[in-house]
Write a structure and sequence with these properties.
Elements: H1 6-9, H2 23-40, H3 56-59, E1 63-68, H4 84-98, E2 102-105, H5 114-123, H6 127-144, H7 160-174, E3 176-179, E4 184-187, H8 188-197, H9 213-221, E5 226-236, E6 241-243, E7 262-271, H10 277-282, H11 291-301, E8 303-313, E9 316-322, E10 333-336, H12 343-346, H13 357-360, H14 366-378, H15 382-385, E11 395-402, E12 409-414, E13 426-429, H16 435-444, H17 491-505, E14 508-514, E15 519-520, E16 533-535, E17 541-543, H18 581-584, E18 585-589, E19 594-599, H19 613-618, H20 629-636, E20 649-652, H21 660-673, E21 686-688, E22 692-698, E23 704-705, E24 710-713, E25 716-719, E26 722-729, H22 741-748, H23 750-759, E27 767-768, H24 775-788, H25 808-826, H26 830-847, H27 853-863, H28 868-877, H29 894-897, E28 902-908, E29 911-918, H30 924-933, H31 935-941, E30 946-952, E31 956-961
Parallel strand pairs: 1-2, 1-20, 10-12, 20-21, 22-27, 28-31
Antiparallel strand pairs: 3-4, 5-6, 5-7, 7-15, 8-9, 8-14, 10-13, 11-12, 16-17, 16-19, 18-19, 22-23, 22-26, 24-25, 25-26, 28-29, 30-31
Helix pairs in contact: 2-22, 2-28, 5-6, 22-23, 23-24, 24-26, 25-26, 25-27, 27-28
Length: 962
């Protein structure tokens, strides 16, 4: 539902005040000042050197680097929910400029990705064409809001000069390995030197010189931070591409398109983010981030301490990770993930004698059983596979392993409740202590051995148990062999003892495991950064030299990856790039003469460009290096309070907690280790803004109807005469409830929109949009204008008065507002800052008579970060030739901030009987005397004695009669 403000949009009649602040005047003022800012370069933030070097005085100031999360240039443009964070950072950046900082605030576009590609598939329009048109529209919308961005620093991830450096960073990661001893990334050449010198043993026992080039590539691939491997992936035939775990819904379907997703094994590029798991965890403690986001990252990384245990099988071993090695004596079977690479190796041709029918799944051979069960498991998401309530399924692979602590043969199963993505993809099943293992053991008639003394009275006969018993407080039992006994020990001590035994006997070792998996970095798409990798005739990957970057996307006739039957899990990707044979097959000289190569035909994921964009903002035109070290050190280097460096303030949605934020931290740490940057973290302070919501109206079919066409009658809602439901939710084009900033700017002006969005409530909480309420902020601006400008003549209405001649109430109101607004803007409490500005403005309105010039000037400066256009206009009318943007923010006089008196409440038996106006500094004794002497208190006591007087100076006295 939409309601305009007639006062804002109606034509001005002949007898109306000709110089009244109207929507038309706001539009003229805003357009004029936006042109002025652009022409003057008002928001240019000078670097200490380079092509963006500027005013030395500004460079000498303390700096502030303020960033918004990258917007994606959607074809739908912006609705009023999108600019919430942008306006907030703009207000904060303007305040920082006015408090003496050199502020870098700019905005680019994260422009690669699937939406533009899907539009290209549907229309045949090149993704660049539609994306650039979308960016131009968004630039226009953002400019109209008066955002103070340094436009010299803006770019899009699709600019070849930008993704040249994305490709260059990929090559740095590819040419690096993680040194566990040094706890940092090092160039791969240093690892090769260790192999060549014999300082590091070559896997397999051969010398480095004896290996072929392909064999060396395989060895190095086990160390590189960017590597290709055949690994289980989320394959979505309906989209024709592989998806990251985070792009798959809980019910095993693609987030985009809702197609089924299957587990499949494909050759893909990966980033070894797991090497940084400890550092990614530890460094969170020194970041100024919301605790909820830190917790999400900690849980996603998932550090757990335990032991690696080797179970011998057919002369080899199956390795498991367990956090409870103290329960090893209770392991009565093993389970491998269906995708585990050892399944085929240990699956025999025939069932062992005596195999139970329940274990075979009704199949004639183990191989048939395994194949059928794998196909069944591939159709389920990880969440479905691990659901607690589902029936446990699995199949015996036909092999037995040996429990190392007691020598027992334990059958090996595959089951979908075990995932390759955690631990080793294999578990030792202890059904007495784990509910999932318990249910599986019951279903397959497997032994359940009690190894933790129950404390709930159930006894040790597991045949009578209805569920597993898990405890960290109980003592261990039935857990001893000739060399070690855990019986009677508490859990912690038992874990230590069995781990010592495992290490002493070579059966395992204490270790740390992480839930975090390596980052799948390939996409079977067109609209993404090409990999700067080529393959020789032996399939060995070679990096392109920096001189060949950027490797640009070629033209293709068909932008879509080949899609398949969504339910056919056995299909394989065919990428758009693979169809351009002239681009794929090339002859290059990589330093050893011209040779034939084949290009990589996958592209990078849309996360790649946003992993490092903060660095490009610093030095956006540098074609020789990623970023000049001096410039990077100036804006992002470590300093007091920022031990790892990074952006001073980063604002965006909480939905990126474990994707963009984690990936960007990983890239920063690699670049830091390799000496390319001084900042080990990209973003020091993170702020998550809330969401602007809107009512969604649905008809009887559940279909959204246009909110602007809904009528309210007697508390119910109707669309074209039909009653509809109303529910608060997201704002968006598909929900038919979107309101564009263009509409609000046309009706009220951009300054009104800015004020309304900042005044709606605390920035970090969601809030409902109400177009009818916007008029309140428009009226604030009208009253502000009226306090400075005569609406009839257009001339100043202020009066020149010496500070000493301004009345005390006005000075007190002014300085309290200055003090409060300063504190609120510093703390990003924009809604309360606006409330204080409103209070001061209302005081001046009620006081009557002309406003003192010095008061008007300070009021305009208070408003300037929030409503910059009208502030510039009034500042100029007040006789100033300079822009308000770089003026000093007012400073309060402490003498006027302290209240002259405060109200003290006097209670008798908890009921208020009197109110006293007292000095804020009054003592407890003096306040008690004043309260007892008050005539209303004396009357209320009626001569009764007093048992106790409780004083909380200066605001409360509580009298307890005898």
């Amino acid at each position: 539902m939409s309601e305009t403000n007639p006062a804002a949009t109606a034509p001005v009649s002949a007898d109306a005040a000709p110089h009244r602040y109207t929507a038309a005047m706001a539009a003229e003022i805003e357009a004029r000042w936006q042109d002025f800012w652009d022409a003057e370069g008002t928001y240019a933030a000078p670097n200490p050197k380079g092509d963006l070097a500027g005013d030395p005085e500004l460079v000498a100031r303390p700096k502030k680097f303020i960033m918004d999360m990258f917007p994606y240039p959607s074809g739908a443009g912006l609705h009023v929910g999108h600019p919430l964070g942008y306006i907030a950072t703009d207000v904060f950046a303007r305040f920082q400029r006015m408090t003496g900082h050199n502020v870098l605030h700019t905005l680019g576009f994260d422009a690669f990705g699937l939406p533009a590609e899907q539009y290209a598939v549907q229309t045949g329009t090149h993704p660049r064409v539609s994306t650039e048109a979308n960016m131009e529209n968004m630039r226009s919308q953002l400019r109209r809001l008066g955002l103070g961005h340094d436009k010299r620093r803006s770019f899009a991830t699709i600019d070849p000069e930008y993704y040249k450096w994305t490709q260059w960073i990929f090559l740095q990661i590819f040419d690096s390995w993680y040194d566990d001893e040094a706890k940092k990334a090092r160039p791969i050449a240093e690892l090769v030197a260790q192999f060549e010198a014999g300082e590091r043993a070559v896997p397999g026992g051969r010398t480095w010189s004896a290996l072929t080039e392909a064999e060396r590539a395989d060895v190095l691939g086990e160390y590189r931070l960017a590597y290709a491997s055949d690994a289980p992936v989320n394959w979505c035939p309906g989209l024709g591409t592989v998806l990251a775990n985070e792009e798959v819904t809980a019910d095993g379907r693609s987030e985009r398109g809702n197609f089924p997703v299957f587990k499949s094994k494909l050759r893909q590029w990966n980033m070894r983010i797991t090497a940084y798991a400890d550092r990614l965890l530890d460094d969170l403690d020194q970041l100024d981030w919301p605790e909820a986001i830190k917790l999400q990252q900690r849980n996603w990384i998932g550090r757990s301490e335990g032991a690696r245990v080797d179970f011998p099988i057919d002369g080899e071993r199956i390795t498991v990770f367990t956090t409870r090695p103290d329960t090893l004596f209770g392991a009565t079977y093993m389970v491998l993930a269906p995708e585990h690479p050892l399944v085929e190796k240990f699956t025999p041709d025939a069932w062992p004698e005596g195999t139970r029918d329940a274990w075979t799944g009704g199949h004639a051979t183990p191989a048939e059983a395994v194949a059928a069960y794998r196909a069944q498991a591939a159709s389920k998401s990880d969440v479905e596979r691990q659901a607690e309530a589902k029936d446990k399924t699995g199949v015996f692979i036909g092999a037995y392993a040996t429990n190392p602590v007691n020598g027992e043969r334990v059958p090996v199963f595959i089951a979908d409740y075990v995932l390759m993505g955690y631990g080793t993809g294999a578990i030792m099943a202890v059904p007495a202590g784990d509910q999932r293992d318990f249910e599986f053991a019951r279903a397959f008639e497997l032994p359940i051995r009690c190894i933790v003394e129950p404390t709930d009275g159930r006894g040790t006969d597991t045949s009578t148990w209805e569920d597993a018993f898990a405890s960290y407080d109980a003592k261990i039992m039935n857990s001893a062999n000739d060399a070690v006994s855990l019986d009677g020990l508490p859990v912690v001590e038992a874990k230590e003892r069995i781990t010592e035994w495992l290490e002493r006997t070579g059966a395992g070792e204490g270790t740390v495991n992480f839930r975090l998996r390596d980052w799948l970095f390939s996409r079977q798409r067109y609209w993404g950064e090409p990999f700067p990798i080529v393959y020789d005739e032996d399939g060995v990957a070679h990096p392109l030299p920096a001189s060949m970057l950027p490797l640009e996307l070629p033209e293709v006739e068909d932008y879509s990856p080949r899609t398949f039957d969504p339910d056919d899990a056995d299909t394989r990707p065919e990428t758009p790039l693979s169809r351009n044979a002239d681009w794929v097959n090339v002859t290059l000289d990589l330093g050893d003469g011209p040779k034939k190569y084949r290009r990589e035909t996958n592209t990078m994921p849309n996360w790649a460009g946003s992993c490092w964009y903060e660095l490009r903002y610093l030095d956006p035109h540098n074609s020789e290096r990623l970023v000049d070290p001096e410039i990077e050190q100036y804006w992002m280097g470590p300093r007091e309070g920022l031990p790892h460096g990074g952006v001073d303030l980063y604002v965006g949605g909480a939905e990126h907690a474990v994707l963009h934020l984690l990936y960007a931290r990983f890239w920063s740490k690699v670049l830091f280790d390799l000496g390319h940057v001084s900042s080990a973290e990209p973003f020091h302070k993170l702020f998550n803004q809330g969401m602007i919501q809107a009512y969604v109206y649905r008809d009887s079919r559940g279909i959204a109807v246009p909110a602007a066409e809904v009528e309210e009658r007697d508390g119910a809602y109707y669309h074209q005469g039909e009653k509809v439901s109303r529910l608060l939710g997201k704002m968006g084009k598909s929900l038919k409830n979107a309101v564009t900033p263009d509409e609000i700017c046309a009706e009220y002006g951009a300054d009104t929109l800015r004020l309304y969005e900042m005044a709606m409530g605390p920035l970090d909480v969601s809030r409902p949009w109400d177009t009818r309420a916007v008029v309140g902020q428009f009226r604030l601006l009208q009253r502000l204008w009226r306090n400075v400008v005569d609406e009839n003549t257009g001339e100043l209405s202020v009066v020149d008065v010496a500070e000493a001649d301004i009345d005390a109430d006005t000075l007190r109101a002014l300085h309290k507002a200055v003090d409060g607004v300063r504190q609120d803007l510093e703390g990003m409490r924009f809604n309360t800052a606006i409330a204080k500005v409103t209070e001061l403005n209302n005081h001046l309105t009620k006081a009557g008579g002309p406003v003192p010039r010095s008061v008007a000037e300070r009021l305009v400066l208070l408003v300037a970060p929030l409503a910059p256009h009208v502030a510039e206009e009034l500042w100029r009318k007040l006789g100033h030739e300079t822009s308000v943007v770089h003026e000093d923010f007012p400073v309060a006089d402490p003498a006027y901030v302290v209240d002259e008196t405060v109200t003290c409440v006097v209670q008798i038996k908890g009921k208020v009987k009197a109110r006293l106006e007292v000095a804020p500094s009054i003592s407890d004794d003096d306040l008690e005397k004043a309260a007892l002497a008050d005539e209303k208190v004396v009357a209320a006591l009626g001569g009764a004695g007093i048992r106790k007087v409780i004083v909380r100076a200066p605001k409360l006295v509580n009298i307890v009669p005898a």
